[in-house]
Amino acid sequence: MKIEVLYKNHQYEEFDSSTFVSQDIFPKGNILTNWILHLDQIETQGIILTAHWYDTNGCSDTTVIGETAIPITRRNIGYAMLLVSADELAQLVWLKKDGEKILWREGDDLINGERFFAMEQLCYSDIGVISINKRALSIFDYLKNAHPDKDDENIATSMGYTLPALERIRDQELAQADDALLTIEDEYDDDPDFDGFL
After folding, report:
1. How many CB atoms lie within 10 A of CB 19?
2. Is 67 buried (19+), middle (13-18) or exposed (0-12) by CB count in 10 A?
3. Handedness of CA 126, 127, 133, 134 (dihedral sign)
């Protein structure tokens, strides 16, 4: 993970987790490092990156996958690194994670881009983009028509959803204003030369 930070005074900082300065920061049994970028309490704690580790030594628990019992290695507490303190936050212009802006300033407000982009993918549609929610309803309706012998719950499960989630999405889509659901044909209704093709 690479974190880039730009401040109002044009100071630019980069943090790269791909290599440790010290190669023996974790014990020799470490097989996986778990990176967590904490953006949940930045006003009080600042922006914190934590690194935890998974140790293969002394695995006593097992899980069964198929018919094979496999040892479980658990996450061990590692280290927290303060990237941007709460005092420095007012000077932050933006923060990028792996090249993508995930925090940026709009006036005095700091915008959480990860939450915004997640909602955008779920909800936003226009002429060139269909939201995940609309696609989910379309697939559900398609499968329901293609398999009339299956009940709604089985159809929802077959596409990775739950029926209550799909019902919620349908209610949310129906709650949108009619003008938000304009089709491309609606936009060209007044154009006598429009024949349905662009």
Report:
1. 6
2. exposed
3. positive
